[in-house]
Amino acid sequence: QAQLVESGGGLVQPGGSLRLSCASARFTLDYYAVGWFRQAPGKEREGVSCISSSDGSTYYADSVKGRFTISRDKRKNTVSLQMNDLKPEDTAVYFCATDDYIVGTYCDLVPDEYDYWGQGTQVSVSS
């Protein structure tokens, strides 16, 4: 059973937007660092963005800076990834993840640092 559940993926034209959401019945996500990752066919999983556990510091891969925004909704116990100006190269399965040991004002974009994962949601950008 997945510890996290992603939603919000779909097919969108280049330049369009999607909002992904990560929810958990097990974790109170406000207390954890949460990362978003993606994996395109034939490629390794890569970090996209993360938000720290303590002060909400955010980090982004260079490829998505200025286009993607990560945020928390404490009331809904979710972490969202707003994706704007989507490009065909953003096409991938997107995963959220968390871990017990990534704490403080820092979070990591290295997939191996995270122990708990969702099953992923497909994002396809095509005209």
Question: Which descriptors would you attach to this protein?
Answer:
127 residues, mainly beta, four-stranded antiparallel β-sheet, 11 strands, 42% strand, globular
Structural description of this entry:
There is one protein chain. The model has no long low-confidence stretch (mean pLDDT 95). This protein has strands at residues 5-7, 10-12, 18-23, 34-39, 46-51, 58-60, 68-73, 78-83, 92-98, 116-117, 121-125. By secondary structure, it is mainly beta. The strands form 2 sheets. Strands 2, 4, 5, 6, 9, 10 and 11 form a 7-stranded mixed β-sheet that branches. It has a 4-stranded antiparallel β-sheet with strand order 1-3-8-7, with no helix packed on it. It is built from no helices and 11 strands. A hairpin with a 6-residue loop joins strand 4 (34-39) and strand 5 (46-51).
Quick overview of this protein structure:
The protein has 127 residues and is mainly beta. It has no helices and eleven strands.
Rg over alpha carbons: 13 Å
The helix-and-strand class reads: mainly beta
Q: How widely separated are the two ends?
A: 35 Å
Count of alpha and pi helical runs: 0
Largest sheet: 7 strands, mixed
Strand content: 35-45%
Task: Please render the helix and strand layout as text.
Blueprint: E1 5-7, E2 10-12, E3 18-23, E4 34-39, E5 46-51, E6 58-60, E7 68-73, E8 78-83, E9 92-98, E10 116-117, E11 121-125
Parallel strand pairs: 2-11
Antiparallel strand pairs: 1-3, 3-8, 4-5, 4-9, 5-6, 7-8, 9-10, 9-11
